[in-house]
User: Fold this.
Amino acid sequence: MSIDDARPNSDITAIADGMIALLKQNLVSHTVLIQDAHIGDTAIYVDDNLRYDRNNNIVLMDNSSVYNPDAGEITGLEWHIIKDYITETNKIVLKEPLQKDFLVSNNGRIQKAIKNAILFAKDILYGDREVIPFDYVAVTVDSERFSSEWLALRLMSDEFRLGINVYVKSGGTPEQEELNLRIRDAYANAIYNLLMGNIHLDVALDDTPLKVDAVAGTNYVYINSNDIDNWPIDPCHRYSVQDNFGTNQDLAIVECGVSSSSSLSSLSSSVSSISSFSESSASSISSATDFSSSSSSPSSSGNDPYSKVCFDFNLTRNYLLKDKAVLRRINRYLYNSQAADIEYGVTQKGSTILKAAKISWWGKESRDYVFPQVGRGGTIGE
Assistant:
């Protein structure tokens, strides 16, 4: 697909799909263990902890775990709280030690569990509906309104409005009823905070992993050569480089001033001298002198597996493979957005009474028009 195909338009579907993707990534945050976790451990090692933070509730499970609250079957799971701030991409420290083993060979994994209630990715749905089959917690994203207004002679501001609904099944006992209300409120609050922390919502986003550690002070990165056709020269400042601990934003892709082969041969010397470069506090988490041992060295042969992408500005920090460094393209840039309010209550879906909350959200995107416009009316010719 051409990069022009994803540029601003009045279709609210892409905005709703982007919202669903954001909610799945951050409310579920499923990631697998990369090292066996044993009874008594407080440190666990996972593939990527980008979307976890201190005091988050998480659940550990494996292929022997059963979660069916309707039938009262909840076995082989453990709920925990993250103790420390995240400082390493693959490590999470728990407040309490594990009570059982979770093995990589048995698909040991974790995900978020707000108020110890699990939300599955399949239960985050496009559009509200009369009957919603779900496990315990459900979220729907409903398109509500599109409007636009002129910002300037050729510049339109499009406004998209979505309703994000949280549903929690009701319980029988007074204690369970109160718990479900608290779960509803906690999920609604988590969504509100997530959206207020993503004013420029990631919508229709492309990304590709870096293949070599990117170095502060340079204006290029290396990606897989098989992907290079999807990252052409583009003067629009809608590109970014990021890893789990920092980002450079508003970059444009420009023509490289030197050949890929000469740059590849000089990269190792740049990496070896990086320890003398003073980094910002954001990147101090990942020391410049501690590059990942798995970081690939560029090939100097005629068939380089990596290709160079150059930017109009230098990078201000290091971006490391061990910290999940990627090159990103923002196809749809929302220059402003806000979770306006939360409405709490109870609703009926089919024959079921559910605890409910609705977060009202709006986002604004600019769109250029070219004048004069070619007319499409007039007399119909023979």
Notes: The mean pLDDT is 86. The chain has three domains: 25-116, 123-201+333-368, 211-324.
